[in-house]
Design goal:
single chain, 349 residues, alpha+beta, HIT family, subunit A
Length: 349
């Protein structure tokens, strides 16, 4: 008889510190309550922003390439005369090559394999005002940002050059942002990223073994226990995962099973945008405005997994650093349990 991956209790120890296993992917986390109280000699303050002219601010549109999308609908080109709220721009410093070679097959040399890293990389500027976090955005801009996510996802699907689109946000220097003006990124790749492949494979195995969706069972279990749930209504649930890799890590899921973020209706997108905005404000209050990433995992373009996969949002506050133990062992160390993180976030509402 196979082990029930959602039997969270079986992974807990009797001591104060616990070794927890993620129920889907199997990575392990040391929950070490109290390590956040260690003495710290280094000054970890965020360096002040540069006084450079911000290329994303309204009025500086000439500092960026022509938009691929401007919202609200109907604007041909953002400018002072044509006010805008959200712009989608090509990334002029991309990690992925813009060209798609006709022979895109990997090249094998002995043990080493390589291929051209081709794809599409875009920046979503979330406001003409110089807001520095998604939590600071007006409600309209938060909603339009999520509309832009979905529209670019579906447009890139239609273009047929890529297999997967990663939607994500880096906020703050330690989260990978080079500019403080609130913005997100779109990266479309010719491959399905390994982490998404692992999620799909593990979700399919669970479905074959149990006849049910892992994600639906996960929602049911989290609601039943309640200790890690930060927010839940009839549409969405947000909780700190059982094997959270860092303090205040969050997973946001729609309550109704849906594999493809591109299929979410406008009402769900609006509710998700406003919930994420509220949750990030709670995280910033609890952790004194940390750097953070958030990302959306969704179904690859060439995959049918509607019975067992579930798109979701992950929020990752960057308040811990992977040090020698973590790199050497592949384990994560989280100094605040997800149950306590959830309680702190609920109390900050």
């Amino acid at each position: 008889m196979s082990r029930d991956p959602l039997n969270f209790e079986s992974e807990q120890s009797d001591g104060g510190n616990q070794l927890r296993r993620d129920p889907l992917l199997g990575f392990q986390v040391v929950v070490a309550e109290g390590r956040e109280n260690r003495p710290k000699q280094w000054n970890a303050s965020i360096p002040p922003a540069s006084a450079m002219r911000c290329p994303f601010c309204g009025g500086n549109e000439d500092a960026t390439p022509h938009e691929r999308l401007v919202l609200p609908e109907g604007l041909a080109r953002a400018s002072d005369e044509m006010p805008w709220e959200v712009r989608v721009l090509p990334n002029i410093y991309p990690s992925l090559a813009r060209d798609f070679p006709p022979n895109g097959q990997p090249q094998q040399q002995w043990l080493y394999q390589s291929e051209t890293a081709s794809g599409v990389q875009e920046v979503i500027v979330e406001s003409p005002q110089h807001h520095t976090s998604f939590a600071q955005l007006p409600e309209t801009n938060a909603i339009l940002t999520f509309e832009a996510y979905q529209r670019r996802l579906n447009t890139l699907r239609e273009q047929g050059q890529c297999r997967y689109v990663q939607l994500f946000k880096n906020n703050g220097p330690s989260a990978g942002a080079s500019l403080e003006h609130s913005h997100s990124q779109v990266m479309a790749t010719r491959i399905v990223p390994p982490i998404v492949q692992q999620e799909l494979a593990a979700s399919e195995v669970y479905f074959q073994q149990h006849g049910r969706s892992f994600w639906s069972d996960l929602i049911e279990r989290e609601l039943a226990e309640g200790a890690r749930v930060v927010y839940a209504d009839e549409t969405l649930i947000a909780f700190c995962p059982f094997a959270s890799r860092m303090p205040m890590e969050l997973c946001i899921l729609p309550r109704t099973p849906q594999a493809d973020f591109g299929d979410a209706n406008s009402t769900l997108l609006e509710q998700l945008a406003l919930l994420l905005r509220s949750l990030l404000a709670q995280v910033e209050k609890a952790l004194n405005f940390p750097a953070y990433n958030y990302l959306i995992h969704t179904l690859p373009f060439d995959t049918f997994a509607k019975d067992y996969y579930h798109w979701h949002v992950e929020v990752l506050p960057r308040v811990t650093v992977r040090a020698g133990f973590e790199w050497g062992t592949g384990l994560y160390v989280n100094p605040i349990s997800p149950e306590r993180s959830a309680q702190i976030l609920r109390d900050s509402m």
